[in-house]
Specification:
Blueprint (H helix, E strand, L loop, with lengths): L4 H11 L3 H13 L3 H20 L15 H11 L6 H18 L15 H13 L3 H21 L4 H4 L5 H15 L4 H15 L15 H20 L8 H14 L16 H13 L1
């Protein structure tokens, strides 16, 4: 597993290989499998992302009844009104809700990189593919780009809300999606690096404060923010706007911030929104139902 974005960049230059292939070859080495087997495995993950969106049930509520049906509300609103965010962004928002709600309703999703952030990557990638009419092969390559970014974050910091707050989950997913979006748009490695750095920087310090300890409120709607952050970071990078701080240093800073967070702000359900009067009331109501 590569431990820095810089390391992957250097390997790309030394071998003359694209970012996605360098990550794929590392997977082949670590898993002791062929390139064909690795690619097929990654393609199956992308198909599962497609299915998690396609199999959304607009009638389902989670067991707690706190989330569900909102993606369908947004879809209907998008069809009937001109949304402020525009057509592409509104589709991204709807998909992020669809997949995140499916997770809360115990349907099949892809942890990308976690279940709590599962809506970010599909929302961005599926919508880009739809708009640009890209092949599943190109989308699979984009997943290697995203996984390379996720691997570096996992090595240098954390992907777990319990360790680093929601910045480690939604923030990481957003960075992964941003890099993949830049790749799919023809951006180079430098643009991918800036997109990652900007995406992580924008969500740095985001706490993990699940109401009643469930990955529902505010988690589901934060998938929307993660996806929107990804496409804005990608566009900034594609425009030639660079992060002043190198991505590896940004990731290190995210780790440091996570360690500074009080335990109440790291997935314990004891701080932030979970500690509000309404959050506590919802928790008590769920306990009484159980």
């Amino acid at each position: 597993m590569y431990t820095s974005f810089e390391e992957i960049q250097n390997v790309c230059r030394d071998r003359g290989e694209p970012f996605w292939k360098v990550v794929m070859l590392e997977d082949c080495h670590e898993s002791d499998i062929s390139e064909e087997a690795s690619f097929e495995k990654m393609r199956s993950i992308y198909y599962a992302m497609k299915e998690s969106d396609a199999n959304y049930d607009p009638t389902l509520l989670s067991s707690s009844k706190m989330v569900g049906t909102d993606a369908e509300k947004l879809r209907l609103y998008r069809e009937e009104h001109k949304m402020l965010s525009g057509d592409f962004a509104s589709k991204v928002m709807t998909r992020a809700l669809r997949v995140a709600e499916s997770n809360a309703c115990m349907k099949r999703i892809v942890a990308a990189p976690t279940a709590g952030s599962c809506g970010v990557m599909p929302a961005v990638l599926l919508t880009v593919q739809e708009r640009e009419n890209l092949s599943d092969e190109e989308m699979t390559k984009a997943l290697y780009v995203a996984s390379g970014v996720g691997g570096v974050i996992a090595e240098r910091a954390s992907l777990a809300g319990a360790e680093g707050g929601c910045q480690a989950e939604i923030g990481s997913a957003s960075a992964m999606a941003a890099a993949a979006a830049v790749f799919l748009s023809g951006g180079d490695n430098s643009a991918m690096e800036s997109a990652c750095a900007i995406a992580v920087s924008n969500l740095m310090g985001l706490v993990c404060d699940p109401v009643a300890g469930l990955v529902e409120v505010p988690c589901v709607k934060r998938n929307v923010i993660g996806a929107m952050n990804a496409i804005s970071a990608a566009d900034l990078a594609l425009a030639g706007i660079k992060s002043r701080i190198p991505v590896d240093e940004v990731i290190d800073a995210m780790k440091s911030v996570g360690h500074m967070m009080a335990p109440q702000l790291r997935e314990t359900g004891q701080g932030g929104l979970a500690a509000t009067p309404t959050g506590q009331r919802l928790y008590q109501e769920l306990m009484e139902q159980d």
